[in-house]
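Support request, please re-run this one:
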Amino acid sequence: MIFLSTIKDTPSSAFGQPLELSWYIRPICTLILLYLMFTSLWSIPVVYLTWLFSDWDTPERGGRRTEWVRRWSVWVGFRDYFPIKLVQSSSLSPDRNYVLGCHPHGIMATAAFCNFATEANGFSNLYPGVRPWLAVLTGIFRFPIFRDYLMSAGLVPVNKDSIRFLLSQCGPGNAVFIVVGGAAESLQSRPGEHVVMLTGRKGFVRMALQQGADLVPVYTFGENEIYEQVRLSPDSWGWKLQLLCQKFVGFAPCLFYGRGVFNVESWGLNPIPRPLTTVEILLLLHGIHEDTASLLGSYSDSHLLRVVIELLRVIGLL
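Re-run finished. Output below.
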């Protein structure tokens, strides 16, 4: 199975920002609630926070996805900014569950978000009966209001309880996308380099085995190309700070930049429109009797070899 995404230049640079701006909404939502606490509208945050306490575990129980948010017209603009194209080459059976390991993380995991957390490319129309779930950092579900937006888009925490619930309690037809490399891989995101972090990351393989789900490698060629990142020396205090944040917080503060919103020659937070190609290969690896370590090796080997072969076939070189 192959998903092919192609990105080209377009003057509509303002549409490159929805994903990036969404992450800055987190502290804004929290500050608004704190501000309202000291106004005549104090009852609003009190009621919301009281409800939040009772709703705390909902993200790990499948959340509250809504097609209305996933079909916002802003996502179409986001897709067309690059543009990103999703090409169907085979079908996903709604009678099976899937765990999909996405590589590389890049800075924002842009291709994964557009293809699987929105309906900009019509995932549900291409694969009827299959529900895509994008697993992201658990900590961001602790932000008031922002957590509700994440759940409405079909995002879930990337932890055992959440993924196990989707694969065991929500019936068949669930496709859980996990950006396996996480913070460690984002630190290695640099144009012209392909780095995949699999060492010490066997949990997603073990989960697929235990739940009888098909294991699917996904690779996006070009994910590392849309942002430049400042390379810090391994001996510098900045690099050590990044590693500390990665260890204790779960993410690494990357020093990255793209291009400006109104002046494409300047630097800013807009991604650089460069080709992205997402290749996904269905591996029928499932069951509880396999060894996790050996399966991870098979996953890696099959991933690197078959991805290259399929990519060359898609672009017409084979």
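The longest strand covers residues 214-221. DSSP finds twelve helices and eight strands in the chain.
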